[in-house]
Design a protein that fits this description.
570 residues, alpha/beta, 8-stranded mixed β-sheet, 17 helices, 27% helix
Amino acid sequence: MKATCEQLARIIDQARGLEPADLVIRNTRIFCLTSGETITGDIAVCGDRIVGVGETYSGKNEIDGSNWTAVPGFIDAHVHVESSMITPYEFERCVLPHGVTTAFCDPHELANVAGAAALDYFLECSRRMIMDLRVRISSCVPSTHLETAGGALSAATVRHYATDPAAPGLAEFMNVPGVLNKAPDVLEKLSVCSENIDGHAPLLGGRDLNAYLAAGVRNCHECSLLSEAMEKLRKGMQILIREGSVARNLDTLLPLINVQNAPFLCFCTDDRNPLDIVHSGHLDRMIARAIAAGADPLAVYRIACYSPALHFGLSDRGLLAPGCRADIVLLSDLEQCRVAQVIKDGRIVDDALFAARPPAPSVAPFLHSIKREKVSAEAFRVRSTRPETPVIGIRELSLTTDFLKCTLPCDGGEKRAIPKQDILKVAVLERHGQNGHIGLGFVRGFGLHSGAIASSIGHDSHNLCVVGVSDEDMAVAVNALIDAQGGLAVARNGKTMDVMPLPVGGLLSEKSFPEVAQELERIHQSARLTGCPLETPFLQLAFLPLPVIPFLRITDQGVVDVEKFTLIEV
């Protein structure tokens, strides 16, 4: 927001009322996040800057704000745009009307497929977008040595991007064992960005947490227990309260939300799918739910607006105050956070503003990313004579899994699932053309009675994931993804029932947000025909290969004991 002398002169004159402001929101209620008061008056804007609050102004353009309450633009402290299954251009069209004017994104989903090209793509998108998309440098690509990714970001690459002012800091550092064991490449990455480092430390505590924080990590979005969050808060860690599509931590962490704690809390969505945004909103719904549960509105709006600005060093936003960026959300209801109008950098957010954007960067480098031959049912046979078997137990609407031990039948040297007990086969197939690995295991909790579901979204290396009742249907579902060059698939009785193509890196659609939401609704309905009762079956599947969240996972290399950070025999 640097201004020339001429611009400063205009700002001063408009602030003093010596000339009409570029934009005035007249006679609106203004929720002051400094004092907690609600005052009535005008908000004057010159260019992209607020120049007056409270006094009466005349403007070249005026908005009648008498029925609304003004608050600062909301800031999503941690998000993976790819989880919305749409491109960054469509993402902002989707979330800006919900009041999200700034977001800190980690593009490590696409980076695990395409490496540095993904960072380049997101950075170029951010330069052309209306909302302020802050691109953090993906720190763990791949996230661990226990999986096969398509791309890799070395410490040297991180150092290169750290010089770009559009890439402020290091994204979530998931490799906690690498930090604690002082892995050389990990230490080099940490040293590049010093203290501007996002965390990812589920259930970490005690001296290990001390060491993780002392290495420069500043925040965590993985708190699933109140006691965990309290320990981290006491030790100075910024707590990013997450409400994603699978991991939903708001209700658990609500007791943290008060005016005293607010400077040390932020809201984030992490991974949120299109249907949840359509039906449940974005940060606006988090705000409304927190207030409805009894939280102080002043604390809640500080957490949504000012605290993330403070945490990430953005002194130009987070308040409705002269000199701040003109990111303004006009609400028809403050407590229910009903967004009536959004202003970004002094511009009214509407279809005309979206239409005026420069052309979106090309996604051509990310097409045709599934580099694997089709498979047969034979690929899913589990050769073993050991009845005792580690089984992944999923917890619905949670990223954490249970480490179960079950006795499974071994007929003729082949281990079999027990669908009647909801123990199914699960597989992860390397799809980047690196080695052709297939990791095989067993899972409980999907509830399929027949068929199979498959996804090319498999955090974080994004290999092909499939769970099913029969080997034949698992093969059909995987082959449908190979044909579609990525997406979600459902198979039954040896046939493909439904496919939702995601051709951009196997993660994103080129279609509009409403179209993607409709397609996702349709394929969820197809998945229910297999008997799967889960609210978000494909997202639940997509997190099974993530070997940095307790307790039992599966990658293309096999089943992973996360606590021991090693592969174990099935």
